[in-house]
Amino acid sequence: MWSLNVVSGSSPLYSWALYSAGFSVLVAVVLSMYLIVEHLAAYHQPEEQKFLIGLILMVPVYALESFLSLLDSNAAFNCEIIRDCYEAFALYCFERYLIACLGGEKNTIEFMESQSVVSSSLPLLDDAYAYGVVEHPFPLNCMIREWHLGPDFYQAVKIGIVQYMILKMICALLAMVFQFFGIYGEGKFEWRYAYPYLAVVLNFSQTWALYCLVQFYSVTKNKLAPIKPLAKFLVFKSIVFLTWWQGIAVAFLLSFGAFKGSLAQLLKTRIQDYIICLETDEVKVEIDVSKDLVMP
Q: Can you list the GO cellular component terms from the UniProt entry (predicted)?
């Protein structure tokens, strides 16, 4: 088989890395498919579960994309484009899932309007919702007006999330164009390549989307308590946001020669793919936090 030929022609260290990554991917895919089957077998809350299934599919998509990139570095770019597109869709699913759990957009806005005072246990957001007003921490409060709970806050959060989805798709398309002209330079932080510029744009966009999600969670966490919103929020953040920042950090360190180990020299720009393959603990957490919607 093709994959076996790849391994047989490589060093023992690379073969070990490939087999360990393959085992982790297999575990991730099997557990994810098991969870999806559980949801489909107890499909009693379709408005919530259809978006949750879309989120669960992130795990096999990320795992398989990373493993295929390890098998064939020439296909890595196309695999990452697919992952980026699905990441944008997953962010939409996460937002719609939370709104569905609140009873839809109308009920969500009505709930926000009913909150005259909302306290938060997060130090960053203490006293941020007094009198139904969302105040931003410094220095954002010097640049952005305060949000009023209700349609104003809901639209601000929605736009904050949607802008990342749109920019993610645009940057993926631009990456394809730059790759075609040979100026994309994946993982290279040099001024003549497009990669660092796209990374900066996505970094700001993603940070703002994450901030909006934190604000939305802080306002609705008590209402969403039955579905364990903090656990789901942390799982989603770790899969989407932390893996992206992890990739940027790996590319940055690699470009400056920070990785000197033998395995790092073999994998080179595919280090991030190998790490993602091994990060199957997220699947176990995902199963734990998603069981509340699986009916017996």
A: membrane
